[in-house]
Each structure stands twice: as structure tokens, then as C-alpha cells.
Write a structure and sequence with these properties.
6-stranded antiparallel sheet; single chain; endopeptidase fold (from Nostoc punctiforme); 6-stranded mixed sheet; about 425 residues; alpha+beta
Length: about 425
């Protein structure tokens, strides 16, 4: 599947610093940035663990068995998830930081393609819409194009190799220009069971435990005291500051990075992550037979296949619309509600309302709950093969991830069969 590809062209686009962005068929090791100095030598590759799918455009409303998908309005904030939406202060700081950089783009693809869809693009085993789905390529995900024949492009993206409709790919020079705009700065975990903190200090409480090789979007790399004070006033309670040597924390800020973990923020020591610019890439995924022939009950398979139809749709804090915007628990509530299961509104209440099962007994259609300190703040639907689908955050929307991208606090069962 892999082959050596040389740099074909280079272009400089006006942003402001000296960051090298490179695209390859496999992961590219990135330099670790551990100081407050301007960044240099960073890489961009298409190894973000996300997918995408759409062949003939995106419908505004999706139906299953001629039944319209549920559409609901957003709910009052007090009924939504406990995790607050992203701070305007942080968004302003992120934007200001990005404007400081100059991007030099070096491409290691013979021919780059980027998915030009609103949600996702199916990757087929053969050049036919009747062929089985072997993977999905989400909006702005990258791929290498081997060739284009009769409207179909033979591509490889991550571990997925197959065919996509050529008309839904941005190609060549236009793809190179687009890559600079849609690539994301991410922190890739270098060690297993990595603990991330609520504040940039090892004295701070553990927010979550992350898995090796997982990518998390960087919210702030150059942390200073002024920025941290704004963050604390917006997101941190007084009791969370107890036991923390504040001056020692301020003196060590250059060794920490703020990342996005779903719709919340956390801090991780830079020595345990690689920071780079990346495009999303496709992941392998198949369809479950809804007649039970796949070894999964027809009820569970129907729930999973229904949930996957909303891949790439918007994340909206407090939302419950599967088509127009939803948060994590609104997504699970809407999917299961379509099949007559009444789940409570928040992830915490959903965890309390479901029976616990072990990871060795997990089945497609079970719920994975995530959180910290005994508090559940995120929920996802298990779809089989070690994967989940969930409404993650405004940047990613509804996406598919490794079920253990972070340590679950509970696996819950809704469907009893």
C-alpha cells in the first residue's frame, strides 16, 4: 500500500513564521516544541484518526426505511451537558496565535486529494456505488490519488485503500492551497495511559487518561500568565486551585500545552506529545447487516447503521437535532429515541440509567461514557471493531474515533438481547 514519494512541489502562503507542513502516506514524526520561541520544523500529515462519507451530495434530512430522522430544537443551557461551551476568550487567543505564523507547505504526495463534502465520503472496494464500503473520508480529510478513471479516483488514506467519486475531491494545486487552510495543529500522544490535567501542573487534578497515538487539537501552545488567568476565571473553581503552587505553575508554563478533549480543555506536558499540523485521514469501517447475519442482532445493527448516517453533521452545545446540530448526549438520545428507547437528556443521567457491562462483553449499540473525578461529561455509541461514533465538539462535529481514545469511566447497555 505504501510507496516512496518525493516532494513534488513547494509553495509559500502568507500567514506569518516558519512551519513546514508535509503530507505523507504514513505518520510523520514531528519535532517537539518545548519553548516559547517561534515554531519551526513542524510537519503536517494525513494521520488524524477520523473518517468521512458522501457520494452524491449531502441531504439536509436523512431517512431510514422511509422514516424521517428526528429533528429537535436546542434545549435550555441548564438542561444541556455540564461541560461549558468553548470560551470566547480562548477562541480569540487561538485565532491571534495562528495569525503569528508563516506557513511553508512541502507536499510528499505525487497527487494530493482533499474531500470536498459537507459530511463524509464513502470509500468503496471497487469503482461502483454498488460495491461495499471499506472506509469513510470526512470533510477536508486528505488522501493520495493513484489515478482517476471514468469518474472514480483510486485513493489511499491512512489504512484505507479504495475508490471514491472523483467529483468530490479537490485535487493537485488547489488541494495544496486548501491543505494550509484546513490542516489542524494537533498534539499526538507518545505514551500509553497519558494523564492530562485540569491545569498546567502535576499538582492539578487529572482530567482524563489518553491513549497512545491519539490526536487532540491544540487550543493553546504558547501559554502565558495573562492567558492562564483568563482561563482560570472562566473555567476553574476555587477548590480546584487548592494544593497547587501557583508561582511554580507560572514558572513552568512553557513546558505545557492546552488541548481540546471533546468539548472541554485540558493540559498536557509537551514532553509526552508530538505537536504537528495534520489533515484528517480515512479509517476502515464496514456496514453491519441489519438482518442479523453479521453476528450482531438486527436491533443493534440498525441502531449503529442509523447513527453512522449523521457522521460529519454539526456539533451544537445544548442541541438535540441529528441533522441541524446536537451535543453528545443529544446525539445518543436522538439515535436511541428513533428506535423507541427513552434516554435521559445528559450524559451523566444516561450513565446512571444504563446497566454496566465489562469491556470484554461490549457489543455494538452499547454506550461508552467518559469523564473525570467520578463525573461523566461525554457519551458515545459503540459501533464495533473498537470504534465509537459521537458528537465531539464544534471543530469535529459528529465523528468516529477509537473507543479507547481516552479512558472510559463506564460502558452502559441500553439494548438487552
Amino acid at each position: 500500500m505504501k510507496k516512496s514519494l518525493g516532494i513534488k512541489r513547494a509553495a509559500i502562503f502568507g500567514l506569518a513564521g516558519a512551519i513546514v507542513l508535509s503530507f505523507g502516506l504514513s505518520s510523520v514524526s514531528a519535532s517537539i516544541v518545548s519553548t516559547e520561541e517561534p515554531m519551526a520544523g513542524l510537519n503536517i500529515s494525513t494521520d488524524r484518526f477520523i473518517i468521512a462519507d458522501v457520494e452524491t451530495g449531502v441531504a439536509s434530512a436523512i431517512t431510514v426505511n422511509n422514516t424521517p430522522a428526528p429533528v429537535a430544537n436546542t434545549v435550555p443551557a441548564e438542561e444541556a451537558e455540564a461541560v461549558a461551551p468553548p470560551s470566547e476568550i480562548l477562541e480569540e487567543e487561538i485565532e491571534a496565535e495562528e495569525k503569528e505564523e508563516h506557513v511553508k507547505l512541502n507536499l510528499n504526495y505525487d497527487r494530493l486529494g482533499i474531500a470536498k463534502v459537507d459530511t463524509y465520503l464513502n470509500v468503496r472496494a471497487k469503482a461502483s456505488i454498488k460495491s461495499k464500503t471499506v472506509g469513510k473520508l470526512t470533510k477536508n480529510a486528505g488522501c493520495h490519488i493513484y489515478n482517476v478513471k471514468k469518474g472514480w479516483a483510486k485513493i489511499v488514506s491512512g489504512k484505507v485503500k479504495g475508490y471514491v467519486k472523483s467529483e468530490y475531491l479537490v485535487k493537485d494545486e488547489k488541494a495544496e492551497e486548501l491543505a494550509v487552510k484546513v490542516g489542524k495543529k494537533v498534539a499526538t500522544v507518545k505514551t500509553g495511559a497519558l494523564r492530562v490535567r485540569a491545569l498546567p501542573s502535576t499538582d492539578s487534578s487529572i482530567y482524563s487518561v489518553l491513549s497512545k497515538d491519539e490526536d487532540f487539537e491544540v487550543c493553546r501552545e504558547k501559554i502565558n500568565e495573562q492567558w492562564l488567568e483568563k482561563f482560570i476565571s472562566k473555567h476553574i473553581k476555587k477548590k480546584q486551585l487548592k494544593g497547587i503552587d501557583y508561582q511554580a505553575m507560572i514558572g513552568d508554563l512553557s513546558n505545557w500545552v492546552c488541548i481540546s478533549v471533546d468539548n472541554d480543555y485540558a493540559f498536557v506536558a509537551k514532553e509526552y506529545v508530538d505537536i504537528s499540523y495534520k489533515l484528517n485521514r480515512a479509517v476502515k469501517i464496514g456496514d453491519l447487516a441489519t438482518d442479523g447475519s453479521s453476528g450482531v442482532s438486527s436491533g443493534r445493527a440498525s441502531i449503529v447503521e442509523y447513527a453512522k448516517q449523521f457522521l460529519g453533521n454539526r456539533y451544537v452545545y445544548g442541541g438535540t437535532s441529528l441533522t441541524n446540530g446536537t451535543d453528545c448526549s443529544g446525539f445518543t438520545m436522538g439515535v436511541f429515541g428513533h428506535f423507541g428507547y427513552g434516554l435521559p437528556r445528559t450524559s451523566g443521567s444516561q450513565a446512571a440509567a444504563t446497566r454496566s457491562v465489562s469491556s470484554s462483553d461490549v457489543k455494538p449499540g452499547d454506550l461508552f461514557f467518559y469523564g473525570s473525578g467520578g463525573h461523566v461529561s461525554h457519551v458515545a455509541i459503540y459501533i464495533g471493531s473498537g470504534m465509537i461514533i459521537h458528537a465531539s465538539n464544534p471543530s469535529s462535529g459528529i465523528k468516529i474515533s477509537n473507543a479507547y481514545y481516552r479512558q472510559p469511566v463506564k460502558i452502559g447497555r441500553v439494548v438487552n438481547d
